[in-house]
Design goal:
The structure is a homodimer. By secondary structure, the first copy, chain A, is of the alpha+beta class. Chain A folds into 3 domains: about 60 residues, Scavenger mRNA decapping enzyme, N-terminal domain (Phosphorylase Kinase, domain 1, 2-Layer Sandwich), CATH 3.30.200.40; about 30 residues, no CATH class; about 190 residues, HIT family, subunit A (2-Layer Sandwich). Helix content of chain A is about 25%, strand content about 30%. Chain A is built from 8 helices and 15 strands. In chain A, the strands form 4 sheets. A 6-stranded antiparallel sheet of chain A has the order 9-10-11-13-12-14. A 4-stranded antiparallel sheet of chain A has the order 2-3-4-7, covered by helices on one side. The longest helix of chain A is centred in the last third of the chain and has 19 residues. Chain A is globular. The N and C termini of chain A lie far apart (about 60 Å). The N terminus of chain A is likely disordered. At the A-B interface, β1, β2, β3, α1 and β5 of A face β1, β2, β3, α1 and β5 of B. β5 of chain A pairs antiparallel with β1 of chain B.
């Protein structure tokens, strides 16, 4: 059809046949809800998030919506606004079939700050990561252009310092205000921050420089309006870098998870073993397998 | 009508006749936009915010909406969902007539990431701080118990390593879920992170240890549920440390402003000059005096 999407009905009518089992989490602030359901007997996770407003369609929204009066007090009045369907869509992501791991990941729980020493990484975290069978085939699909090839914003194909830059799934690509891109490195085997040493400086500097340039070219957003960072722990163990609009308070940009790429570079420049030796603090949620391992090892400060 | 609202049309058709002048602010995260417009020649402020999801209508939403396919990769697929009008209303608040004060209040400024080298600190930031006459008498009043004495949660009176711990003004002290305390050091003359060297390690370690203990005693919150950090730039230049509930996404806990106290301690342990020599990145808003100084010095990466 006109805007390139195809309307799914029966067969593709995924949500109508969904049997809702549980709300995994919800955020009134972000207008988001995550549901655990079943489709044909298999688990599914459905993430619903309302889209941000777009300046470009504001005029149409004002002229073609219906106001329902709510209350009035002096100069203040409030209403409910009913808006044409195409101006008020909801971003929907379906994970299907979903595993117990996915359910755990999306279920909201108590959270704890883990302080992982270099030794903890070797004795607790690394064995945990290696025991996991969380597939990163989807990452290789992207790098090999077997999937999402049309979404690639920029690519440096160099096997050593190259990377593929593409929109994060959380971004609808419509508004620069919540710009969210991911640079995935071509080099395989770099699991996370912990694997980085001075030998990776050319790779990191290349991502910083060319990522900034590509975003300036494609989205007219200068480097001074970007937040460029790595996650630790990451959600998958193949090195990638996050680029978000500084204005957008993206999930996972808190100090308990995010590390500026520029800081990582500086730290490695002055100490190539920085990320092998430092204690790194990060937040884990109840039910997370790694958190259990830290608990078992008596490494969680509950006092 | 049935649901108690009355539908406004001409006369009450406020938005259709609104002449949009300016977007005062917008939040992609909160799905909110604030518009400055005119109605019959007078200023108006219109606040639009999408409503959170309601569990009660989720079933109806799933069965009566239309899915538009967006993309698919492995177990992940994404869609745009078009939802019946009454399930997807937008909360609208109109301030009319609005004064210049209202416009100021709602206008958000652009923000930029400043990368301050050690030299920039000496040549731009330090002279700027010293030229300010922003009084910190209120801090001395707290330390000397001339003000807020009844709010003190814990005090170590030692002049060298001591501090006063009290609730931040942003915390209502009612719910531990958004706990927010500040430790203000007794020692004067330590302006910020930039002034810290290895000689301050006993002070920082004392705050970390005794602050954790005091919070555990008073609020039954263990250290693993706390986020303990410094701001750079801080909002006042007398050293203080933030203690917030890890669960609470406090303002200023993003990586563009917050530094874990435990990281500061580690960095100083391995390099006493760490915070004198590093490039530190932080966010400043348009109109901020320090941002102007960085612009004048040609130190803001606009490219």
């Amino acid at each position: 059809n006109e805007d390139g999407g195809c309307f799914l009905k029966p067969g593709g009518d995924v949500l109508a046949s969904l049997k809702t089992l549980e709300i995994l989490s919800e955020s009134a602030e972000e207008k988001k809800i995550i549901v655990h359901g079943q489709l044909e007997g298999n688990d599914a996770v459905v993430v619903l998030e309302k889209n941000p407003f777009s300046k470009d369609t504001l005029e149409e929204l004002f002229t073609s919506s219906t106001l329902k009066f709510d209350m009035e007090n002096n100069i203040y009045s409030s209403y409910s606004l009913q808006v044409p369907l195409h101006l008020n869509e909801i971003k929907t992501t379906v994970i299907y079939p979903a595993t117990e791991e996915h359910l755990k990941k999306y279920r909201s729980h108590q959270s704890f700050l883990v302080e992982e020493t270099g030794d903890d990484y070797q004795s607790i975290t690394l064995p945990y990561i290696q025991s996991r069978t969380f597939s990163i085939q989807w990452v290789y699909n992207i790098l090999e252009k077997k999937a999402e090839a049309e979404r690639i914003v920029y690519e440096d194909p160099d096997p050593k310092v190259g990377f593929t830059l593409l929109p994060d799934l959380k971004w609808d690509q419509k508004r620069v205000v919540n710009l969210y891109l991911i640079a995935i490195v071509h080099q395989r085997g770099i699991k996370s921050l912990r694997d980085l040493t001075e030998e990776h400086l050319p790779l990191l500097q290349n991502i910083l420089k060319k990522g900034k340039e590509a975003i300036r070219t494609h989205y007219q957003l200068p480097a001074s309006k970007l937040r460029i960072y790595l996650h630790y722990q990451p959600s998958y163990y193949h090195l990638h870098v996050h680029f978000t609009n500084l204005k957008y308070r993206a999930p996972g940009c808190g100090l308990e998870r995010a590390h500026f790429l520029s800081d990582v570079i500086q730290n490695l420049q002055s100490d190539g073993q920085y990320y092998k030796t430092r204690t790194l603090s990060f937040q884990l949620h109840e039910g997370n397998g790694l958190l259990c391992k830290f608990k078992e090892a008596g490494r969680l400060e509950f006092r």
